[in-house]
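In the current project phase, the collection of sequences with tokenised folds has grown. A representative record is quoted in full directly below:
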Amino acid sequence: MNRTLILLFLSAAFSYTAHAQSLINQVPANASMVMEMNLKSIKIHMGDKVSSLDKDMSLSFFKYRSMPFAKLFNSSQSGMSMNKKAYFFMHEGNTYWALPLEDSRLFKTRIQEVAASSRYASNKQNFKFKTAKGAETLFDENYGVVIKDNTAILTKGSRVNTYNSYGGNYQLKDALRAFMRDQGITDKDQEVSLAIKEKIEELIANHDKELVETKKQESQERIAELERMDRTNLDMATDEAIDEVAVEAAAEAVEEATEEYYEEYDMVEEAAEEVLDMDEINAPTYRYDWSHPCIQAFDAAWEQYKLRKKESAYDLQIEEMTRRALQFMNQNEGNSILSNNQFTSDFSSTHDMGVWISEIFPFQFSDMVNKGMNKMLHWPEMNSLLSGNHGVVYMDVKDQSIDIVGSQSTGKVWSKYQMMNSRPVNKKIIKYLPKTTFGVYAMNINQNEMYDMYYDFSKKMIATLQPRRGMDYSAMVDLFDMFINKDMLLNTLSGDAIVALTGTTKMISSKRKYRFDSSAFKRTWQMVPDTSVIPEMMSVFTIKNQANLEKLLATLIKLKVLKKKGKNYFIDMDSRYKSYGKRKEDPLKTMWTMGIEKNMFFITNSREVQQNKGLIKHGAKKEMNKEICTLLKKEGNFFYWAHETGMNAIPWEDMGSKRTMQSAMMSANYFKSAKMVSKQTGKNSYAINASFNFNEQKKENAVLQLIEMVQKMNERF
């Protein structure tokens, strides 16, 4: 009995210790994205081959700084522990790496070497770790490393802009010139008086105060924006009622404000004209150039101001990144991602690599991209559409493939729209694909559900636009819905389609060639033949109502968009080129062919199809890519790329680039094909399954083949 209790105690203690030491505890609960890397598995896949990769393969810890690949995956050289898991995560717009260490001293040495060796290092002489709150830190600009208890957090903050953030000094220079004029300083004066120095300090100080106030206002607006995000589940009917009243009130307010604005504008304009007239009378005969001592004194003071702002911004960022890193290092499981029910229900740690994305990821990611995307994603309607969407993607390395599986769960709003059909695409398409086909994209969508989603959300988004002159823009969507021919839009085609790359074709056209006539001293031009190689493509759609389609094509003929020749239709481009005078027939006129073939509508640039006036049946299905045939028979939404076949099908000698040809052919020796299948697995769930296949004849696994391919391409190019 005592022995059993002891064993249970030791087992529990060991489990607690192992769990407590897991780096996943350092990932915060509200992280928007989490990536787990099984370092042990990656090391096994690498094997002994990794030792030969020092020259060209690297991993960036800092901007433009790298650590040799071999050292990174060798604990005796990098200091990292290769028997544990590492984590990459995003939190509130910043990115972090949590790395397990075996030898923290060695890891510090390697980091110092990497940072100091870069030509971009801001201070090559001072890359030393400092002690802060029980941890060791090293920072360079907005990149940093924090080390504590055999754990390293590599962090990257927001970019400190050293120019745009502190621009606008031209306005201040204008104010300084006005002051110089008041002081009676001319362009001949070379002395920088005490009054000028005080004025320069005053201008910059006032500018700094305005900048601080602007930042405060932006921060308050951001807080208000986040608060609006939390209110997305309000009753829609209430929102619509409020919007209806607000639209009318806003229209009246805008109209009144517009009238007042133009009245004030006219008054200001008249006053400005009077001032300009007086300036012309009293204007001095001198001007200040950029080399004036007072202007140069301002420039010197402004550069010092920018430097202070930059250093202050970096200091604040370093303080914040250190605080956050220590917070993550010291937090318990209750504050980690393990307390996030969404994460624990989605994520599995049994793969080589896993990536989990939360519903807040698009919004935090938008903060890192641009303000335009940020505003779009934070619209209440877009927020409601994305709310509740989360997913996970896993990657596993096999002998000759890298396999990826993933799933996505949607929120209650998105779940209303069932946009994917489960049935495969039209199987009859197979017989019209030639054996040279090397790429296929197929889709099978529910057109009615897709239309309903776009209608609902476009109406709500447009309703958020500020009405002008009393116009309610959301009513325009209703008008479109009322007058559009839904039967023509939704019932002409079935919703399934493929786009296939079937080979390449030479396009013979003409182009302008200019030459200079020295005797006449003028430039002349003439049309010369031009040959280029383009992919041969074919799009095929299943027809639901052929009468509708024929009616649409007849209308396009009347509008002189299309021309009919036999069974086929051609794009009519004659009117587009009249302004250029007489020229040879443009290939775009006859390049794209359309037609109807046994309940299928096709668009292609195949010369063979054009010559035969319709789709061509290919009886040799056994010679076609077997995977493409299988996918077309079983799946409705997929992508397939036969890389080796495609590379061999392209006449690289006609592409004009020897480097491109060599690169393409080299890649075909390793990478063979890629496949991705997506399905709607339930009312609110989607799944993807993808694989990237490599040369089966080689002994190395897929990862080593990929690394070797990149390495050889680096050596050559």
Observations:
- The mean pLDDT is 75.
